[in-house]
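Figure 2 data, in text form.
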Amino acid sequence: MTTPTHRYLSLGAGVQSTTLLLLAAQGAIPGFDAAIFADTGWEPVTVYRHLDRLTGIAARADIEVVRVGTGNIRADALDPEHRFASMPLFTLGPNGERGMARRQCTSEYKIKPIKAEVRRRLGYPHPSRVPAGLRAQMAIGISLDEIDRARDADVAYMRNVFPLLDLGWRRTDCLRFLAEQGLGDTPKSSCVGCPFHDDRFWADLRVDSPAEWADAVAFDRAIRGGSAKANADGHPLRGQFFLHRARVPLDEVVLRPRPRPQDAPGCGPWTCPHDATAPAAAGRGEVA
C-alpha cells in the first residue's frame, strides 16, 4: 500500500519562504496542502500585513495558509503564571559579567507548533504514536548561500525538503523574483523585541513605527529583573536582562546604524541565522 504524500511549507513569511509559496502558486514547483505560519504573537505589523497578502495569493491557488502558535511570546515572558521559554537576552551580572540567556524561543514558539500541526493533519496528535512509514514532506526555504542550514528532520514523521536548493537559487535570485512579482517589499520575519536586531533595525523601528518602538522599550524595561515566573517563584536573576547588546536601557542606547547587505536573512523556524548555542545567563531565574 502506498503511503499518501502530505506536502507542507514552513512559511516564515520572509524572502525565501514567500518565494516558495509564489512558485507553488504559479505551478513552477509542486503545490502544498498547506503553508504553516508559526505566530509568536509579536511579529512586526509589516509581517502580518504581508502574511495577509500571501493568504490571498495562496487561496487563489487552493493552498491553505494556516497560522499556529503556542502563545504570545511577549505576554508569556511577563506573566508570572507562565513558564518562560528563554529568549537570547543580553545579561549583565552583579560584578559586570556579560553573557546571554539561552535561546529556547524558536523551538517553543515556532518549531513546536508546526510539528503539532503536522501531527494533527496526519491524524495522530500528541501523544499518539505516528505509524512507521507515515510522514509528511516539509518544504523549507533554504537557498544555496545557506546550504549549511539544510538538515534532516529530527522526527520520523517529517522529511525536510529544500526546493530552492533543487532549483539552484540563491537569496539574491529570490529577491529578484519577488521584485518581478511586485513583492519587492517582502519583510524579514522576526519578533519586534528580538535581541539579535542590529542598530539599523532599532533605528528604523524608532522612526517608522514609533508604537512598536515604544512597545519594545517597555518590554526591555519590564524584563530587567529576569523572568516574571522565576521571580514569583523566589528565584530572581542575579543580574539584569537587556534587549540591546550594549546592556543599557533600549531608549538610552546610542544607536549606530550601519549599512547592511540587502540579502541579510531574517529568522524562520529552521533558518534563524543565529543557530549557535548562546552561553547561559548570569545567575538563576533565566529559565523556568
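Caption note: Residues 276-288 have pLDDT under 50 and may be disordered.
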